[in-house]
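for the recovery benchmark. tokens below, seq after
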């Protein structure tokens, strides 16, 4: 697993439109250019405490995290009940939803095919940070190639 520290040294401001995008019939959006949006400012609130990691597997598909997604993780946010976290459990990294109520701690998958993991006193659990965003690509490089091949 490759973990990269987030950096805001490189800025990439992209246009953002003030109107919402319809999933129905298209509308001319160029008339509604609002401003430029810097994805670093939008996705990374604490650069010195933020890192990115690529997800693998399908245990979190119920919350929109898919294999291959890039997760943005903030170490400065306190994990609480319901947070999606990067956890180290018995020396293995995982992404799960934290359940913490009435002395019970468990890591919950967001896919019914995977059981929850109850954390017992003899287990070592560390929270590496709270997932604040997932970057999910549709089609990726394969899609770009198919358009360019036409």
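predicted aa per position
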């Amino acid at each position: 697993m490759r973990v990269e520290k987030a950096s805001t040294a490189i800025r990439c401001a992209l246009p953002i439109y003030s109107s919402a995008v319809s999933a129905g019939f298209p509308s001319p959006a160029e008339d509604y250019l609002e401003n430029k949006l810097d994805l670093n400012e939008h996705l990374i609130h604490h650069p010195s405490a933020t890192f990115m990691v690529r997800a693998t597997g399908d245990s979190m598909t119920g919350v929109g995290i898919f294999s291959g997604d890039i997760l943005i993780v903030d170490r400065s946010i306190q994990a609480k009940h319901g947070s999606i976290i990067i956890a180290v459990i018995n020396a293995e990294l995982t992404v799960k939803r934290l359940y913490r109520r009435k002395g019970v701690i468990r890591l919950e998958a967001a896919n019914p095919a995977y059981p929850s993991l109850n954390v017992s006193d003899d287990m070592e659990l560390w929270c590496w940070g709270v997932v604040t965003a997932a970057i999910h690509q549709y089609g990726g490089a394969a899609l770009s190639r198919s358009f360019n091949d036409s």
